[in-house]
Amino acid sequence: SSLFAPIALAPRDPILGITEAFNADPNPNRINLGVGVYVGDDGRVPLLECVKRAETLLLEGSQPLTYLPIDGLQAYDKAASSLVFGADSPAIAEGRVVAVQTLGGTGGLRLGADLLRGFTPAKRVWISDPSWENHRALFENAGFTVETYPYSRERGRELDFAGMVGCLSGLPAGDVVILHACCHNPTGLDLTPEQWAEVIEVVKARGLVPFLDIAYQGFAEGLDPDAAPVRAFAAAGVSMLVSSSFSKSLSLYGERVGALSVVTSDSAEATRVLSQLKRLVRTNYSSPPSHGAKIASAVLGSPELRALWDEELTGMRTRIRSMREALAEKLTALVDGEDFSFITRQRGMFSYSGLPQLVIARLREEHSIYALDSGRICVAALNSRNIDTVANAIAGCLK
Ligand code: PMP
Predict the structure, then answer these.
(1) Would you place residue 16 in the very low, low, confident or very high pLDDT band (cuts 50, 70, 90)?
(2) Which residue from 215, 248, 289, 347 puts its CA 20 to 30 A from 226's CA?
(3) Nearest CA to 222 among 183, 179, 180, 262?
(4) Which residue in 160, 248, 309, 330 is the catalytic one?
(5) Does 13 have pLDDT greater than 90?
(6) Catalytic residue check, 132
């Protein structure tokens, strides 16, 4: 029989299934709330003006398309890590932070996973329940056992902080903990600064390995405030990993622009870690693509473009927030006796709506409104034209 005959069919991506069903729906008024990207009020992924201008500058410069270094464009690596740790980060100044350009945030997570699995005793990774659906598969494929810590209650509408801290407090030293720095995917539930301080205490006391995932920097409160948990961890003096991404914040999805930053204890350690990260990259894809990294570093390196980016990011963040407020307000008016204020407390692109699966199914069948079975809706997919339809449909299905 054939070489590949024993290969079983891999499970389908649940989000892709929703997209396919949406695309096949003949209803012209169908609404896709299952998307995982930011779309503007016009329902389209924006091309940011700061990106357009950076691209124009790059075109005018018409540089040859050579290979980048194994660890990526140096200006990009510097810009990416200082965006996360802060321009005045002591860890960076002390030469303890290693940054490598990666294939999006996903590539940063995978490179970090390979570093931990290949060069440290770590064998077990803890992710939140629920978490971004790729976390489990990614770390399992890198050779880890993946477990979950409690994260939400009230069908995903509220944070289960006691459950989370209780679980982390019982873990053995060396276990890896994946933490969403802001805009938790899929729930939209984030920790307060006080809660972060408590988690940092526990992580430090137990000797856990924090791996922060920051894929939505700028979507909660702004670039600096959203990175505060990363900076608090760095200030606590623990060795840590951070995967960051410009996919959403610069709307650069297909360009695959992310970074892995590793905070080590001294610059000699940093040199050794970087040498092994480069080996991992070299034997995998050799070196990263250049175009997206050039765009990102052009934006971050120019005061004008950087200011423009801030403005455009603020526009995206504000629009999402106003959609949250509108949805909560409309549902409160339409549905008796249910509190929808959780929608405005959740942050980032997603909301765990807490809607039962039966309601999600009816929204799809009766209204051509597509949300994930888990109840996750993309708030960014709401806009001035569809918000009333969505609110009325949800209210109708809840009656
Ligand atoms: N982490 C989380 C929590 C995400 O939601 C995503 C993207 N949906 C990523 C990482 C990966 O992002 P990228 O597209 O940059 O690989």
Answers:
(1) confident
(2) 289
(3) 183
(4) 248
(5) no
(6) yes
What whole-number distance in Å separates Cα of residue 156 and Cα of residue 151?
8
Q: Tell me whether residue 213 is one of the annotated catalytic residues.
A: yes
- Tell me what pLDDT residue 195 has: 98
For residue 141 the two structure tokens come to 């494929």
Task: Evaluate: CB of 101 within 6 angstroms of ligand 1.
Answer: no
Alpha-carbon distance values, 280 to 116, 118, 126, 232, 306 (Å): 11, 10, 23, 29, 32
248 is catalytic: yes
Give residue 245's pLDDT band: very low, low, confident or very high (50, 70, 90). Answer: very high
pLDDT per residue over 343-352, tens digit each? 999 999 999 9
pLDDT in the model for residue 399: 85
Ligand 1 center to 62 CA (angstroms): 31
Best residue among 111, 127, 245 to mutate for probing ligand 1, ranked by most atoms within 8 Å of CB = 245
d(CA 193, CA 196): 5
Given the residues 71, 114, 160, 213, the one annotated as active site: 213
Cβ(249) – ligand 1 distance below 6 Å: no
150 CA from centroid of ligand 1 (Å):
21
- Cα(117)–Cα(124) distance, integer angstroms: 9
The protein residue with its alpha carbon nearest to ligand 1, atom 8, reads 36
Q: Which residues of 195-209 are buried (b: 16+ CB within 10 A; e: fewer)?
A: ebebbbebbeebebb
ipTM of the complex: 0.99
What is the per-residue pLDDT across 275-322, written as a single tens digit (0 to 9) for each?
A: 999 999 999 999 999 999 999 999 999 999 999 999 999 999 999 999
Ligand 1 contact, 258 CB (< 6 A): yes
| Rounded Cα–Cα distance for residues 295 and 250 (Å) | 9
Residues listed for the chain: 399
List Cα–Cα distances, 7 to 3, 4, 102, 142, in angstroms: 9, 6, 30, 20
On the 0-12 / 13-18 / 19+ scale of CB atoms within 10 A, 261 is buried
Contact 125, 175 (CB under 8 A): yes
Provide the whole-model pTM. Answer: 0.96
**Owner of token pair 């276990």:** 175
